[in-house]
Amino acid sequence: MPKVQSKSTQKNLFDAGIKVFAEKGYRDATVREICKKAGAGNINAVSYYFGSKENLYREILDAIFSAYDRFDRESWDKKTPQEQLWSMISSFCTMLYKNNAFASDITSIFISEMVQPSLFIEELVDTYNRPRIKRHLQMFSDLLGEGATEDMARDCLVSVAGQLLYYSFAWPVFSRLFPDYSADERYGQWAAHVYEFSLGGIEAVRNNLFKKEEITHGD
Q1: Which residue has the higher pLDDT, 8 or 154?
Q2: Residue 178: burial class (beta carbons within 10 Å; 0-12, 13-18, 19+)
């Protein structure tokens, strides 16, 4: 029984940390507030289970930054570039918009981290984002074909990512302009639209590349 209680207390502190960090931000959040929200009578509970407020925040950030990899890593190398693109897009849409996850405390913490990066951002990027971006850049290079530059692959990546992230950053405005739109109900349709739109854009970039090569060879 004590072990069950221990795990329950640790999870309650973790969940409470998400709530408090989302509401107050890392710098203004206090251990006292986190323990109170978790129902932990001892103010030293955060130190006991996580070592410090800093370590608790880092564990929450690890969970946030690693979340995407749980969706699209499976059999990545066995997929065609087109299948990889669909996996990337559908995974992002599921992660961000299913059950309106983009409006959650987790997203608030992520956005706060983008505005005011913590001491952990460098290591988080190296651990999670850099390997992911490397895979995605290779995918876009394969989709663009021979002659594509790293800059072209990067710009395609940013263009697709921008479409995927739009709702999560602009929802307070978008939801007032289109009050009947439900991201939770339409995230699958949104994923399909972004996929088709992105394939068209990539094809246009590839065609322009071929045209430039033809002009160069013609000269």
Answers
A1: 154
A2: exposed
